[in-house]
Request: fold
Amino acid sequence: MIPYGRHTIEQDEIDAVVEVLRSDWLTTGPMVEEFESALADYIGANNAVAVSSGTAALHAVMNVLKIGPGDEVIVPAITFAATANAVVYQGGSPVFADVDPDTLLIDANEVERLVTGNTRAVVAVDYAGQPCDYDSLRRITDKHDLRLVSDACHALGAKYRDAPVGLQADLTVFSFHPVKHITTGEGGAVVTDDKELANRLRRFRNHGITLDHRMRAEQCTWEYDISEIGYNYRITDFQCALGLRQLGKIQKNIKRRNEIARVYDDAFAELQGVEPLGKADDVTHAYHLYVLRVDGTSCSVDRDRLYHGLRARGVGVNVHYKPVYLHSFYRKHFNTTDGLCPNAEKAYDSIISLPMYHSMKDEEVRKVIESVRESIK
Ligand SMILES: *Cc1c(COP(=O)(O)O)cnc(C)c1O
Reply:
């Protein structure tokens, strides 16, 4: 089975991890800072704070923005559930915005329509690896005095109008889960230019403690204070050693993903009934996912049959995502119902994610294309 996504681990990365395992610091040591500053440098941001997962990063963001009961945070209907879950962790209410039918990115007009007196923040999700329309979103968040957050878990290495993703929002979240562009096993980070927010993120990942273990050792004190509650969302040094090596290969990774996307685009342009998602001209797509839309009316298969046809041929396809508000938790606790976001629901019935990862071989790409052709015959 060709998987829809997978990690690549090379010998130099294994060596770097083993070196840390033999060192004095397994966690909260020098590798964490090294990885953080490499990530901040790569993006051109002032601060990066690494944590134990992308979900922890989202939770930390909602915490430092002081989201709480009664607060609304606008999120897109099509995203991984963690985007909305993080709002719920803080006792806030996610408000679901419909997506643009062509790109499946959050629709800025919908965002503006949903702003109320209780809205505190907007989370933009760079779905599939394509940056959102940040200029339009920023105009709205500025106008209504809201915070703009970017869930860029799909978009490390992407660019919006020549600027790396990570610079557009007040806080940007990345994930280092194995299906993402770079991996630390589990891991995530928040990037921000705001030093005070970065300090609060660092405390939140360590119980709310004002000085971490290493800082106390260096300052020769056992004293610390907790003024706000935090969690244990720390990442280990050996994970950061892996992340640092992986980050060094991101450019090659993004280039290969774009090559694969171009081969897919060309092949599917000639096929009736399937169509790739829309792409803006002024972005560099990071292609975490390659999503096809199936138009059941102009070819012999619908999405479900294409899914099973491809699986039967050894192609590990997937569907990203069911609109979050259709999950029973949200129906039960936030009274969401069918029909809330029509574009998202229509997309959910027709989309399929094809295999896309940077170590994918040309013959695997050809096999996927051939299998799509056969499945829709
Ligand atoms: C992967 C992902 C997350 C969560 O990241 P984890 O590291 O798996 O916790 C959040 N949002 C989106 C859009 C993601 O794709």
